[in-house]
Every structure is written in C-alpha cells, then in structure tokens.
Amino acid sequence: MLEIDEDPQMGFESEEEDDDELSDGELQEAFSKGLLQPGLNVPLLEPKKAINNVEGLKKCLAEFKKNLPWAERLDLTNYPAVDMVAKAEGRAQQPEGSEDVNSEDDFQREMYFYRQAQATVLAALPKLQKFKIPTKRPEDYFAEMAKTDQHMQKIRKKLLLKQAAMEKSEKAKKLREQRKYGKKVQIQVIQSRQKQKKAMLTAVKKYQKGMTDKLDFLEGDEDQRPKGSAAKKQINKKDPNSKRKYKDKKFGFGGKKKGSKWNTKDSHDDISGFKAKMARGKHFGKGGKTNKRPGKEARKKMKARK
Q1: What does the alpha-carbon distance between residue 105 and residue 121 come to, in Å, rounded to a whole number?
Q2: Alpha carbons 4 and 16: distance in angstroms, whole number
Q3: Cβ-based neighbours of 181, under 8 Å, separated by 6 or more
Q4: What proportion of the chain, given as a percentage, has pLDDT over 70?
Q5: Which of 15, 124, 209, 266 is deepest in the core (most CB within 10 A)?
C-alpha cells in the first residue's frame, strides 16, 4: 500500500526514499484504489547551479577592454550632488553612498538621477578644461537636424490639422451647450405662458360664477407692466413715418369721420395755403385776364343757329 504524507518544505513525496521510483504495477494498484488524484504528484525540479567563473570573466574583460585616455572615454562614477532643497529646509544630510532611495517612488528616483547628473557635470568641467576641450557652443555653430525639413513640415501639418479638429470639436461643444440653454429658456417661457393662461382662465371662471367682481385679469399682469416714464417710452417707442403722418392728416384716424372736411370760420378766414395759379386757371389781381369761353346755354344757342 502506498502511504503519502504532506511535507511543507519538500511538497508531496513518498515517506520512504526507496518509493521514489515506483513500478508500473504499483502505480496501477494505487490508481485503482483512488490514491492517485490530480494535484498530489508534483514534480520537483532541481535548482539551477550557479557557476561563478571568475577567471573566464577576467579573460573576457581583458579581451574587449581598451586602455584609452579619459578624454576619449568621458566616463565618470560618482555619488549625487548635495540636496539643496533639504539643505535650505535645514534637514540633516545623509553621507555619500548611504542614501536610501525608494525605487517605487518615481519622484525620488528621478531626483536622485538629476542630482547625480549635476555632480557629474561639476566633476567633468574641470577635467575638460584641463584637457583644453571646449565646453561652450561657439556663436557660428551650426548643427544639422536629425530630421529633414520635409519631415518637419509633415509633422507641422499634422499638428495643425489636429489643432483645427480640436477647435472644431470645442466649437461644436459650445454650440450644443448654447442649444441646450436656449431650449431650456424656451421651455421656461412656454411654462410661464401656460401658467399665466391657466391663472387667467381661473379668474374668468370665478367672475362668471359671481365669486368676484374684479376685472383685473383683462388688463394683464400688473407686476410685469412697466410703470411711469418707462411705460410712456414703451408706448411712444415707434414713431409713425412721414407717409403715415400725411395719411393721418389727410384722412384722419379714429374718431369722427363724417364732416371732418367741412369749413369752419377759422379755416374760411385762413388763406395762407391759397395759390392763384392753381385756382382752376383763373388769375386774380390787377390786370388779370378773365375766361372768355361762353357758357353752356350760349353754346347751345350757337349750335341751334347753325
């Protein structure tokens, strides 16, 4: 019979070392009895052996290492510069090489790289000046761009198209907001009109039933009507044009129409608008000529004589 124990360190394995390699018959017998189940047999992998070949590493290093001067290599290994923020705040500075950096904190890690680059620049400038290597760009320096002008023009066009699309999207968004606001105002106006109409109908029903004798609902909402000078301005806001004034003067407007053109004593005495040339061809005044045409009866008699 196969006896299986659970060992927390080594996994599931046989109780005896001799049972590591079981025959086919024993396995079939254990399977028939239900002793073999999924998950009980875990293969144990042998740990990978680490080979520390120091001599081989030194040999490889000697093959590709070149003894060049520092001006050709420009390599530096140094600790980060002094933390000026911590120094200004009065915090204690940690000694070089003992500063702990949290690799999960992006800001702290990037600041460590930044301070290390600062220290590298401060250490490299004196060496470069010692080897008489210029560290400042001359005034007539011309650096060829890594990308051609045609490529940059394509990028510029793409950026402009993207900016135009964003502006178009913003404009459409503003229009949608304005439409929503206008629709909201329109709904409020319609609701206000419906409310006023309902209130007026209620007042009319009350008046018809004799519940009230006031007719204020016929004058509209007194609170919304302008008062004083504002009301006069609203009434006289639109003056009639000259054509309307002439017709009103000629035909009158409103009030009595019959007998409006009859003469009065004042109009009879007023001759300011009289024109002699327009008085049916008759000329009045000294030396004027009279109409020599015979009258109607005289013309009939003249025809009868013929």
Answers
A1: 25
A2: 9
A3: none
A4: 74
A5: 124
CA torsion through residues 238, 244, 250, 252, sign: negative
pLDDT tens digits along 30-78 = 878 877 766 656 666 778 888 899 999 999 988 888 888 888 888 898 8
The first and second tokens of residue 199, run together, are 């209130």
**pLDDT, tens digit, for every residue of 206-249?**
888 777 777 776 665 555 555 555 555 555 556 778 888 888 87
Distance CA 16, CA 194 (A): 96
> HSE-up of 170 (CA within 13 Å, CB side)?
6
Rg (CA), the chain: 57
DSSP string, 63-132: HH-----HHHH-----PPPP-HHHHHHTPPPPPTT-----TT-HHHHHHHHHHHHHHHHHHHHHHHHHTT
pTM greater than 0.70 (yes/no):
no
Residue 147 DSSP code: S
Exposure class string for 118-127: b at 16+ Cβ within 10 A, else e: ebbeeebeee
Identify the CA nearest to 119 among candidates 155, 78, 73: 78
